[in-house]
Predict the structure of Kynurenine formamidase.
Amino acid sequence: MGTWIDISQRLDDKVAVWPGDTPFSYKVNWSKEESGSVNVGQINMSIHTGTHIDAPFHFDDDGKRVIDLDLDLYMGNARVIHLPNKTSIGVDELANIDLQDVTRLLIRTDAWKDRSVFPQTIPHIQPELAAYLSEHGVRLIGLDLPSVDPLDSKELSAHHELADHGIHILEGLVLDGIEPGNYELAALPLPLVEADGSPVRAVLKKSP
Ligand SMILES: N[C@@H](CC(=O)c1ccccc1NC=O)C(=O)O
């Protein structure tokens, strides 16, 4: 039996946050001393901190919220591919990769080196890749980066094109040292009814 590999960022006050967004905090809000029985914690964080999924409502006021998302997207077979040293990722970068039977595609770029600092630039997904991926049956794209678009993008063309082609987004993975190949993935969002995304605990297990 293979073991599950944690591909999630740790959540503590060292985790990098989108510039200007809510810092991560955890505190014991009601201590054992006060309550007489238990420590009761409270977290305060942006949904877009650490390893998380984006719901379409993040970039589309009429888009689906987390509770509306199909859980099958976030559990099942996944392919990890390694594309280091790219400025962007499009059809050309994937030309040599066989995507047959790939529903969940995780791209290891290695571009976010120090995860305690928010990156200055990242390789972005070319919006044209969305149609290509959907033709091959991909329904989920995951990256070791905080966004699929350039960090200064306001149009978020890749987010929109992916959503328009039924492809969902998983961001902020930790894929350091993960060999390309076939895995089982679990990265379930919380049952947040109104939210634009959710933190996830993402794990991989090598497929036989
Ligand atoms: N769209 C980006 C996130 C994003 O744009 C963002 C996330 C948190 C706080 C601010 C953000 N964007 C613009 O100010 C993404 O989820 O890939």
